[in-house]
Amino acid sequence: MSIRLPSQWHDREMHWHAHRSTTVTTTKLRRHHTPTAVLYTPAGGATWLANTIAAHSTDAVAVEWGTPWGVLIDTPGSDRERGEYALAHGGSVDALVLTTTGQLYLYLDPYNPEQCPEHRPQDTSVV
Ligand SMILES: [Zn+2]
Fold this sequence. Notes:
With 127 residues, the chain is an alpha+beta fold. The chain has helices at 8-11, 27-30, 42-55, 79-88, and strands spanning 15-21, 37-39, 60-66, 93-99, 103-111. The chain has four helices and five strands, in the order H-E-H-E-H-E-H-E-E. Helix 3 (42-55) runs antiparallel to helix 4. It is globular, with a radius of gyration of 14 Å. The site of zinc ion has 7 residues, from strand 1.
């Protein structure tokens, strides 16, 4: 991949809490829940989202990626690439999977070490 990623996430030592829910929730609420996964790189976050969507896409009627307002992405790219870019920018990314039986909301919330001292990237080279 040739997209030049922003370095905000690295400078701020951010990590992301991944959550999945069948209802709309807020960042504030999710804070108090144990994340489904903890991701330490934008690529890891985007991959988690893409894989989780794929795992539920057998009966998906629509998939919608949400990237934060104000993050300018000048490359067309795929949803996954745009998601990775937004995460590298220090943003949050969410996705909504609509299926014939219901809906699934996926969230990636960014945290820096002050906001969440609990998780430390032990090996940042792992994607
Ligand atoms: Zn954390």
